[in-house]
TrEMBL record:
Keywords: Cell membrane, Membrane, Transmembrane, Transmembrane helix, Transport. The chain crosses the membrane at residues 7-26, 46-67, 79-97, 143-161, 168-188, 240-267, 312-332, 353-373, 379-398. It comes from Kribbella steppae. Residues 8-401 form the Major facilitator superfamily (MFS) profile domain. This is Putative MFS family arabinose efflux permease. InterPro entries: MFS, MFS_dom, MFS_trans_sf, MFS_Transporters, Sugar_transporter_CS. It comes from the Bacteria.
Length: 416
């Protein structure tokens, strides 16, 4: 047993493919569900429309936490397989849902699926990669997931335009669930032993209780807690994009196909960009990319709030994807840098609890502001919150990558 991406290339590549299927399960909703809410179920209030994002966010956030603790207790693979079993009924329920309440309930199941499967693939790749290439590992993992979100959003937009909002778009999700379950059950191997191998190489024994891990990751440890708040705000943005952007684009009379392109563009740039930003964080360090990425996202959101035609929205979506790509794998890599292997899976679970709690916060905040002051004001409010989050990282977080941190220390030591 050895650590490193190259030493574990077959399993690592398989887990990249599995996470692409996880992302595809989420992507089946990105274009179609907001339009289904408006055209099929005739929902008018934005707050009520976003109940499915709220249900998803709350459930996924809680499940992320348990995915980390269960991965330490029972192993990674059983948690991954359980997540795929829960995924199987999701597309079927979306096809057959007779009322909006069924859609909300289905997103509870989707939240459990995403929390168990995505969290576990993150933990397993951190296990395999070892300490030196975590940025690359997280870049590949998140790129696979969000490129699949984008491709599926685009594909479901095409299917919806050609065959209707149901059932064709969700048949794609059903195929993802079947393939993901088969690969996870019969081909994926357990990786907990790799974490134990890395822990054995640490001279200092570090064992924390669940309560201590939660406290350190949420509030007390500066880098971990800074990453947690930035992750929450990042997914607050994504909850806004998921639930309200298609409705905003539709207000100018854009076709379903063009809305599908815009819904796909942001996660496509986000996903592909992580192939660059993940490895870059291994060279340049984590803090600068996170701070700059949050500020770029804020700028992009302001542009979306101002724009009123396809070309401008497309440019802003690209910019939003770039900013998110700078942040997303880098935050996960920073958690892996700081957390000891003995409690790292639990720290990842706590971080992802706060990060995906952003879906719920975004659904409530954006829905209420949009209902009271309008869609564009909701986007502006989120833009300001995102900029403030970047400033918190700039002030409170320290550099977590070992090599970059040593370079910074030498610069300070050499300063007059």
């Amino acid at each position: 047993m050895r650590l490193g991406i190259r030493a574990n290339l077959a399993q690592f590549s398989l887990l990249v493919a599995v996470n692409a299927l996880v992302g595809g399960m989420l992507g089946q909703e990105r274009t179609v569900l907001p339009l289904l809410a408006e055209h099929t179920f005739h929902l008018t209030g934005y707050t009520f429309l976003l109940t499915y994002v709220l249900a998803f966010g709350l459930t996924k956030a809680a499940t992320n936490y348990f995915a980390g603790t269960w991965s330490d207790r029972f192993g990674r693979k059983p948690v991954l397989v359980a997540g795929w079993l829960i995924a199987v009924p999701v597309p079927l329920l979306l096809i057959w849902a007779p009322s909006w309440g069924w859609v909300v309930a289905t997103n509870v199941l989707l939240g459990v699926n995403q929390g168990l499967t995505w969290s576990t693939t993150v933990i397993m790749k951190i296990d395999l990669a070892g300490p030196h290439r975590r940025g690359l590992a997280m870049g590949l993992n998140e790129a696979a997931g969000y490129v699949a979100v984008a491709v599926t959003a685009l594909a479901t937009g095409y299917l919806a335009a050609r065959y209707g909002l149901r059932p064709a778009p969700f048949l794609l999700g059903l195929s993802y669930a079947a393939l993901g379950l088969g690969l996870s059950a019969f081909v994926v191997r357990e990786t907990r032993g790799h974490a134990q191998l890395e822990a054995a190489g640490h001279h200092v024994r570090s064992e924390l209780t669940n309560r201590q891990v939660f406290s350190q990751t949420s509030l007390r440890e500066p880098a971990l807690s800074s990453a947690s708040q930035a992750g929450m705000v990042n997914n607050l943005n994504d909850g806004l994009a998921w639930g309200l952007f298609p409705i905003l684009f539709a207000t100018t009379g854009l076709s379903v196909a063009r809305i599908g392109i815009l819904a796909a563009l942001y996660p496509a740039v986000w996903g592909l960009g992580q192939l660059v930003t993940g490895p870059l964080s291994d060279r340049w360090g984590r803090k600068g990319l996170i701070t700059a990425g949050m500020l770029v996202q804020a700028l992009a959101l302001g542009a979306i709030a101002t724009a009123d035609r396809f070309s401008l929205w497309a440019a802003a979506a690209v910019l939003l994807g770039v900013g998110t790509a700078m942040v997303y794998p880098t935050l996960l890599a920073s958690i892996g840098d700081v957390a000891h292997p003995a409690w790292r899976a639990r720290a990842v679970g706590v971080y992802r609890l706060w990060r995906d709690g952003g879906f719920a916060v975004g659904a409530i905040l954006a829905g209420l502001v949009a209902d009271i002051w309008g869609l564009r004001t909701a986007v502006w409010v989120v833009a300001v919150i995102t900029a403030l989050s970047g400033l918190v990282v700039a002030v409170r977080m320290y550099e977590t990558h070992p090599a970059a941190s040593r370079r910074t220390s030498k610069l300070h030591e050499g300063a007059p």
